[in-house]
Amino acid sequence: MKKHLFLFLLAGAAGAALAAPVTYKIDPDHTFPSFEADHMGVSVWRGKFNSNSGKVTLDKTAGYGLVDISIDPASADFGQDALNKWAAGPDLFDVPKFGAARYKGKLTGFKDGAPTQLQGELTLHGVTRPVNLQIKSFKCIQHPMLKREMCGADAYGSFKRDEFGLTAGKDYGFKMDVDLRIQVEAVAE
After folding, report:
1. What's the pLDDT tens digit per position in 149-174?
2. Contact (Cβ atoms closer than 8 angstroms) between residue 132 and residue 118
3. What gap in Å lies between CA 39 and CA 157, rounded to an integer?
4. Which of 63, 94, 152, 161 could bond 166 through an S-S bridge, CB–CB 3.0 to 4.6 Å?
């Protein structure tokens, strides 16, 4: 009887160890936070942030995960050097005063071990507000070279930039909506 109890407890402990949360480090070379914003109703400006870092903690079995990502607004890339420099300055991101943007959230809506939503808060320009993202795709595989698990996702959402104090162009008729599209890859630590 004691032997069976011991084996039962051992099996339970092994199962719990397999279901432990895993922490993944964001791979900045394979992560692409991009955005779209109005330009006076005439066109849509598209850009990306070239510098980001962070981590994701994921427990697929329990259907739970946390995200903590930092983005450097000074790395905003509109494809035009003069606009990039202006965006980092006091008229938009004011990077010397406010520094990095940060997104912290919780992965939710798990289906078959994969999250479908990210509910969180964005801190940008010194203001923190809720920004939720839908996850279009999510997949984990064994990284062929690193021999560790790698997960990737494609997420999207939107926010109003004037709610973060980013009002540049509002007086000229710029719409304040910003659409986000974030392709992210992260590797287990």
Report:
1. 999 999 999 999 999 999 999 999 99
2. yes
3. 19
4. 161
